[in-house]
Amino acid sequence: MIGARKITPMFYVAAALLLTLPPFLVGPYWLGVGLLLLSWIALAQSWVLLSGMTGYISLGHAMFYGLGGYLTVLTWQSWPLWISLPAAGALAAFVALVLGWPVLRVRGPYFVILTYGLAELVKFVVIDIEAKLGKFGRLLMGAPPLETLYWLMLALALIATLATWYVRRSRFGAGLRAIRENEEAAETLGVPVVRFKLFAFAASAFIPGIVGGLMALRSAYFEPFQAFSPVTSFTIVVIALIGGSDDAPGPILGALFLIVLQELLWTSAPELYLIILGLVLIGFVLFVPDGVHGRLLRGKRAT
Amino acid sequence: MAELLSTQLLFAALVTGALYALTALGLNLVYGTMRLLNVAHGEFVMLGAYATYWAFALTGLPPLAALPVVAIATGLLGLAAYRGLFRGLLRNPTLATRIESNSLLLFFGLSIVLQNTVAALFTPTPRGYAYLDAIVTIGPLSMASDRLAALVIAAGVTLAIVLFLRFNLLGLAIKALIQSREATQIVGIDVGRVQATSFIAGFGLAGLAGGLVSMLGQISPFMGFPYTISAFVVIILGGLGNLTGGIVAALLLGVLETYGVALTSTNYRSILIYGVFILILLIRPQGLMGSRQAAR
Q1: B104 touches A at CB < 8 Å
Q2: How close, in Å, is residue B145 to chain A by CA atoms?
Q3: Can you tell me the distance from the alpha carbon of A294 to that of A243, in angstroms, rounded to the nearest whole number?
Q4: Which residue range forms the structural domain that includes residue B139?
Q5: Which residues contact B47 (CB under 8 A, 6 or more apart)?
Q6: Under an 8 A CB cutoff, do B278 and A275 touch?
Q7: How far is CA B288 from CA A173, B89, B174, in A?
Q8: Can you give the pLDDT at residue B33?
Q9: What is the reported pTM?
């Protein structure tokens, strides 16, 4: 057992180092798939920070993703990337802080629909702004190469994974999970409920802001319908729940599962992809409700 | 400004409001009784629309005659969804503790399966048909007869269901379930049967609304989602489980949408609806007439 405990961190460090290599090894197609995988991992980890831990199911992550993309596109070629990408995250976190105070008072199904509605509202406002500016889609010239984007996304996915891992084991994370189990009881026991929720919401928004920026650079094109698409929010929830659990391995397993499914089906039966994704989703809720990671944990405990 | 006072605009607002009331009533029966986040509600509206369309296109069955058949068919689909997907979810205690996220995912899965199956079978191209084109003129008001028929049927069915829920024993049981699940079980109501009835009625109403919608404009496999959203807006605005509140809220939303668009432009339609929805949720999450408890 002691040996296993020593091997585990080494294993993760080695895995992270190996993940920096693909740009030297594979062609642009598979590198693109890798980028997508890392982006879903980062997004799902950020979602787990808020929704996995507190039980406040957010369907609004597309808003942070889209806002980050929008800022990156608007400042493209006037701000350097090392400023505009963190600014994209900061903008998303700031919006979450401002909106969080009223929004996080609403609970349960109301929170789910409210976050969805907010994301749609922001989408239509941006569409309106773009239409007023006479822009119908913006093309980005001279976007950075795929390799650079891959490494940046890898760093982001690692930060997001470490954040989930760390928060899960911290006092802060314990407070968040207490909110999930019983908010009144948590408050009575001295958990600063409002501050914790706000902080989790802002932290949870920061990463999608940057991911949105990177993905806008990847497609070298910005169009609000696509950037703020609610499908992003839904996919994040699907990944987090397929992965299961409120710990770091969940989103990684969920994202891997989704990417493999996508790759298998996009090429062979693209028209069936969404139908099968829907069926897989239904199957998971009914038969594997604690997700892949939850199932693995249970298996380990049983032996 | 004179346009705003026209009876034409008021009529349009009433038609929209009545259709919203009908779809929201169906959603209230499923979401209110079981707290199932039914994001596939609009997909059953879409199925109803397609069923009506095909009945008309293939057999020439007039949409008005097809409506009851379509409602029954989508109601039975609702029963199948309950038996196959949701009964287990509601009974299993570990699944039921996370009923919101689990039902959201199940319905989301169902929704993409339905949308894409219909798109694969019938192509994603929008379709429509011409039916009841005649213009009816009463006093200063001229109305397309399909819209008039939709208004009369939507309003009539909504009222009938509300009265049924108020005076029939099964209807009262549904209302009781909306208010408190535990208390309903304690007084000896067969919760499973009430839930199955709610599914049948809820999805049947969605299908019926779809049939009416198909008479008024074009239909497509992806037309459903806006109906899901407007239905959620209406039931939250009206207060969860408050059926009369829902009707008032639906009319309000219809008026707001029609007049808002007339005053500004169609570009603002979505901004307007979502804006109102968010404001209401933030200021009065219990709805316009709901009790404080419902938001908890």
Answers
A1: yes
A2: 33
A3: 8
A4: 2-295
A5: B74, B77, B114, B118, B207, B210
A6: no
A7: 36, 31, 22
A8: 76
A9: 0.85
Q: Are A196 and A32 in contact (CB under 8 A)?
A: no
Place of tokens 């922001």: A122
Q: Return the bridge partners of B135, or none.
A: B144
pLDDT at A198: 94
Residue A110 makes CB contacts below 8 A (sequence gap 6+) with: B236, B281, B285, B295
- The predicted-structure confidence for A119-162, as pLDDT tens digits, reads as follows 999 999 999 899 888 887 888 888 888 999 999 999 999 999 99
Q: How far apart are CA A13 and CA A6, in angstroms?
A: 12
Question: What pLDDT, in 10s, does the model give residues B33-77?
Answer: 777 888 899 999 999 999 999 998 888 888 888 899 999 999 999
CB contact under 8 A, A113 and B281: yes
Classify A121 in phi/psi space as left (phi over 0), alpha (psi -120 to 50) or beta: alpha
How far apart CA A276 and CA B219 sit, in angstroms, is 24
Span A164-176, pLDDT tens digits: 999 989 999 989 9
Q: Which residues of chain B lie closer than 8 angstroms to A117, CB-CB? A: 229, 274, 277-278, 281
Range ranked top by mean pLDDT from A48-57, A60-69, A96-105, B8-17: A60-69
B113 contacts on A by Cβ (under 8 Å): 274-275, 278-279, 282
The residues, ordered by sequence, that sit 6+ positions from B121 with a Cβ below 8 Å of its Cβ are none
H/E run at residue B74:
helix B63-81
Pick the residue from chain B with its C-alpha nearest to A115.
B278
pLDDT band, residue A263 (cuts 50/70/90): confident
Sequence letter at residue A203: A
Written as six digits, the tokens of B131 are: 């039916």
Number of domains in chain B: 1
In whole angstroms, give the CA distance from residue B171 to residue A233.
37
From CA A286, how far away is CA B94, in angstroms rounded? 11
Residue B37: its chain A contacts at CB < 8 A? 109, 112-113
Q: CA–CA separation, A234 vs A241, rounded Å? A: 11
Distances (CA, A) of B271 to A248, B52, B98, B234, B246: 37, 31, 31, 16, 21
Record: contact A128-B267, CB cut-off 8 A: yes
pLDDT confidence band for A275 (50 / 70 / 90): confident
CA distance A190 to A192: 6
Asked whether the beta carbons of A190 and A196 are under 8 A apart, the reply is no
- Closest-CA residue in chain B for A56? B101
Give the span between the Cα atoms of A123 and B270, in whole angstroms. 10
- Reported as a pLDDT band with limits 50, 70 and 90, residue B95 is low
Domain ranges of chain A: 33-229
Q: For A36-48, write each residue's pLDDT tens digit.
A: 999 999 999 999 9
Residue A274 is nearest to which of B116, B236, B271, comparing CB atoms? B116
Q: Write the single-letter amino acid at A21.
A: L
Mean pLDDT, range A98-127, rounded to an integer: 88
CATH number of residue B121's parent domain = 1.10.3470
